[in-house]
Known about the structure:
By secondary structure, the protein is mainly β. It has one domain. Helix content is 0%, strand content 55%. The protein has no helices and 16 strands. It has strands at residues 12-18, 23-33, 36-43, 52-55, 58-62, 67-68, 71-72, 76-83, 96-102, 107-116, 119-126, 136-139, 142-146, 151-152, 155-156, 160-167. The strands form eight sheets. It has a two-stranded parallel sheet. Strands 2-10 form a two-stranded parallel sheet. The protein is flat, with a radius of gyration of 21 Å. The chain starts with 11 loop residues before the first strand and ends with a strand.
Amino acid sequence: MKSQLRESPPININVxxxxxxxxxxxxxxxVIYGWSSHGKDNIGFGSLDSSNFIKNNATFxxxxxxxxxxxxxxxVHAFVQNQKKEPSTQIIxxxxxxxxxxxxNSGVFVGQSNINGQDTHEKENVGYGSVYGTNNxxxxxxxxxHDPDLVDGVIHDQxxxxxxxxxx
Length: 168
Protein backbone atom coordinates (compact mmCIF):
# COMPACT_ATOMS: atom_id res chain seq x y z
CA MET A 1 0.00 0.00 0.00
CA LYS A 2 1.51 3.31 -1.06
CA SER A 3 1.64 6.04 1.58
CA GLN A 4 -0.41 9.12 0.80
CA LEU A 5 1.79 11.22 3.09
CA ARG A 6 4.68 10.89 0.63
CA GLU A 7 2.46 12.03 -2.24
CA SER A 8 1.53 15.28 -0.49
CA PRO A 9 3.15 18.54 -1.57
CA PRO A 10 6.18 19.70 0.44
CA ILE A 11 5.48 21.08 3.90
CA ASN A 12 6.90 24.47 4.89
CA ILE A 13 8.53 24.10 8.33
CA ASN A 14 9.65 27.26 10.12
CA VAL A 15 11.47 26.82 13.44
CA UNK A 16 12.81 29.84 15.30
CA UNK A 17 14.39 28.25 18.39
CA UNK A 18 14.84 24.61 19.37
CA UNK A 19 16.23 23.49 22.72
CA UNK A 20 17.78 20.33 24.13
CA UNK A 21 16.07 17.01 23.48
CA UNK A 22 13.45 18.55 21.21
CA UNK A 23 12.57 17.80 17.64
CA UNK A 24 10.12 17.82 14.77
CA UNK A 25 9.26 14.40 13.37
CA UNK A 26 7.20 13.95 10.23
CA UNK A 27 6.77 10.43 8.92
CA UNK A 28 4.25 7.68 8.36
CA UNK A 29 5.49 6.13 11.59
CA UNK A 30 7.68 7.80 14.21
CA VAL A 31 9.30 5.51 16.77
CA ILE A 32 11.31 7.44 19.33
CA TYR A 33 12.96 5.16 21.83
CA GLY A 34 15.47 5.98 24.54
CA TRP A 35 15.99 9.56 23.43
CA SER A 36 17.86 11.59 26.04
CA SER A 37 19.96 14.69 26.35
CA HIS A 38 22.36 15.82 29.06
CA GLY A 39 24.07 19.14 29.38
CA LYS A 40 25.43 21.98 31.43
CA ASP A 41 25.32 25.51 30.09
CA ASN A 42 26.88 28.74 31.25
CA ILE A 43 25.33 31.36 29.04
CA GLY A 44 26.86 34.78 29.40
CA PHE A 45 24.54 36.71 27.17
CA GLY A 46 22.07 34.38 25.51
CA SER A 47 20.40 34.42 22.12
CA LEU A 48 18.93 37.18 20.01
CA ASP A 49 16.51 37.27 17.14
CA SER A 50 16.55 39.92 14.42
CA SER A 51 15.94 43.66 14.91
CA ASN A 52 16.90 43.87 18.61
CA PHE A 53 18.66 46.78 20.27
CA ILE A 54 21.08 46.04 23.12
CA LYS A 55 23.07 48.84 24.74
CA ASN A 56 25.61 48.98 27.61
CA ASN A 57 25.17 45.32 28.48
CA ALA A 58 27.72 43.63 30.75
CA THR A 59 27.43 39.99 31.76
CA PHE A 60 29.63 38.11 34.25
CA UNK A 61 29.43 34.43 35.13
CA UNK A 62 31.66 32.95 37.82
CA UNK A 63 31.09 29.21 38.19
CA UNK A 64 34.01 27.71 40.09
CA UNK A 65 32.62 24.31 41.03
CA UNK A 66 34.86 21.52 42.21
CA UNK A 67 32.65 18.97 40.44
CA UNK A 68 30.13 20.23 37.94
CA UNK A 69 27.05 18.46 36.57
CA UNK A 70 27.55 14.86 37.60
CA UNK A 71 25.01 12.86 35.60
CA UNK A 72 24.32 9.17 36.18
CA UNK A 73 21.71 8.09 33.66
CA UNK A 74 21.94 4.30 33.43
CA UNK A 75 18.56 3.46 31.98
CA VAL A 76 17.25 -0.01 31.31
CA HIS A 77 15.19 -0.07 28.12
CA ALA A 78 12.68 -2.71 27.12
CA PHE A 79 11.07 -2.27 23.72
CA VAL A 80 8.63 -4.42 21.78
CA GLN A 81 6.85 -3.28 18.65
CA ASN A 82 4.10 -5.41 17.21
CA GLN A 83 2.69 -4.10 13.96
CA LYS A 84 0.28 -5.47 11.39
CA LYS A 85 1.84 -6.60 8.14
CA GLU A 86 0.15 -3.79 6.25
CA PRO A 87 0.22 -0.47 8.15
CA SER A 88 -2.84 1.71 7.95
CA THR A 89 -2.69 4.76 5.72
CA GLN A 90 -2.84 8.13 7.41
CA ILE A 91 -3.93 11.22 5.54
CA ILE A 92 -2.53 14.34 7.14
CA UNK A 93 -3.28 17.64 5.50
CA UNK A 94 -1.70 20.96 6.39
CA UNK A 95 0.28 23.60 4.62
CA UNK A 96 2.95 24.58 7.12
CA UNK A 97 4.29 24.16 10.65
CA UNK A 98 5.39 27.28 12.51
CA UNK A 99 7.24 26.74 15.80
CA UNK A 100 8.40 29.83 17.64
CA UNK A 101 10.22 28.21 20.54
CA UNK A 102 10.67 24.60 21.65
CA UNK A 103 12.02 24.14 25.14
CA UNK A 104 13.45 21.01 26.80
CA ASN A 105 11.72 17.71 26.06
CA SER A 106 9.27 19.07 23.54
CA GLY A 107 8.30 17.85 20.14
CA VAL A 108 6.03 18.19 17.16
CA PHE A 109 5.02 14.76 15.92
CA VAL A 110 3.09 14.21 12.70
CA GLY A 111 1.98 10.69 11.85
CA GLN A 112 1.63 7.65 14.04
CA SER A 113 4.03 8.31 16.92
CA ASN A 114 5.34 5.94 19.55
CA ILE A 115 7.50 7.69 22.13
CA ASN A 116 9.29 6.01 25.00
CA GLY A 117 12.14 7.00 27.28
CA GLN A 118 12.45 10.65 26.37
CA ASP A 119 14.19 12.60 29.10
CA THR A 120 16.59 15.43 29.48
CA HIS A 121 18.82 16.60 32.29
CA GLU A 122 20.34 20.00 32.37
CA LYS A 123 21.93 22.46 34.76
CA GLU A 124 21.94 26.00 33.45
CA ASN A 125 23.41 29.31 34.53
CA VAL A 126 21.99 32.10 32.39
CA GLY A 127 23.41 35.58 32.80
CA TYR A 128 21.06 37.47 30.55
CA GLY A 129 18.66 35.05 28.95
CA SER A 130 17.14 34.97 25.50
CA VAL A 131 15.44 37.67 23.51
CA TYR A 132 13.03 36.43 20.84
CA GLY A 133 10.92 38.34 18.40
CA THR A 134 11.52 41.64 16.70
CA ASN A 135 11.74 45.28 17.79
CA ASN A 136 12.91 44.48 21.34
CA UNK A 137 14.98 46.96 23.31
CA UNK A 138 17.33 46.39 26.21
CA UNK A 139 19.13 49.35 27.79
CA UNK A 140 21.82 49.55 30.47
CA UNK A 141 21.65 45.96 31.78
CA UNK A 142 24.15 44.27 34.07
CA UNK A 143 23.84 40.55 34.74
CA UNK A 144 26.00 38.72 37.29
CA UNK A 145 25.77 35.00 38.07
CA HIS A 146 27.88 33.69 40.94
CA ASP A 147 27.54 29.94 41.52
CA PRO A 148 30.47 28.68 43.63
CA ASP A 149 29.05 25.32 44.74
CA LEU A 150 31.40 22.54 45.73
CA VAL A 151 29.34 20.00 43.78
CA ASP A 152 26.80 21.36 41.32
CA GLY A 153 24.00 19.78 39.32
CA VAL A 154 24.08 16.19 40.57
CA ILE A 155 21.53 14.20 38.56
CA HIS A 156 20.79 10.59 39.51
CA ASP A 157 18.32 9.14 37.02
CA GLN A 158 18.51 5.36 36.89
CA UNK A 159 15.14 4.15 35.74
CA UNK A 160 13.45 1.39 33.84
CA UNK A 161 11.79 2.53 30.64
CA UNK A 162 9.37 0.08 29.14
CA UNK A 163 7.59 0.48 25.86
CA UNK A 164 5.24 -1.95 24.18
CA UNK A 165 3.76 -0.49 21.04
CA UNK A 166 0.83 -2.33 19.52
CA UNK A 167 -0.06 -0.62 16.26
CA UNK A 168 -3.35 -1.72 14.81
